[in-house]
Amino acid sequence: AAGVIQSPRHLIKEKRETATLKCYPIPRHDTVYWYQQGPGQDPQFLISFYEKMQSDKGSIPDRFSAQQFSDYHSELNMSSLELGDSALYFCASSLWRFASYEQYFGPGTRLTVT
Amino acid sequence: QQQVKQSPQSLIVQKGGISIINCAYENTAFDYFPWYQQFPGKGPALLIAIRPDVSEKKEGRFTISFNKSAKQFSLHIMDSQPGDSATYFCAAIFQGAQKLVFGQGTRLTINP
To answer: What's the pLDDT at B76?
Structure first.
């Protein structure tokens, strides 16, 4: 079965640079979620989109922005990167319009800020 | 403040034994309780989930027990295998919400 696709898988940036992470949800899923996971930590919810509209927001820094496009893929844009942004970033998707809470996670993007 | 509290932080079980991980929550507005399995460097994988109107759900070797009055739920892994060695997260979602709230995670090691 098709899974969530994330790119790139690894990304190395310097402080104050900008990064863009991409997410391709499972086909026919209408909702995407972004989570950040620090080393040894549980995933923390950043933001979600349902049918291309922001639907929920967590502890996402103002330096980060995201959107969902007409083909349902999503991008997370991170500017003015800080050392503390180094983490695993996961995208998940679900079929929200059928009241499904099941979220399926992608393999993640490992962001390293130097 | 951790809204979902998970224990133990780490667990070592012998092959063939039963692994038990516990979670507790305070907010009764939580409406869905999934468990995720995560291997190092990989994304969390949905294992099994339960709603509060059910006391137990079993899928293969994995069972969730849910105690609504105590606001606790647990994951039982029967006949634990070395391949089950991973970090396990319990989680919860508020009714009508989308944000998964995770527990702190349990690092499970199955000794052969």
So the answer is: 98
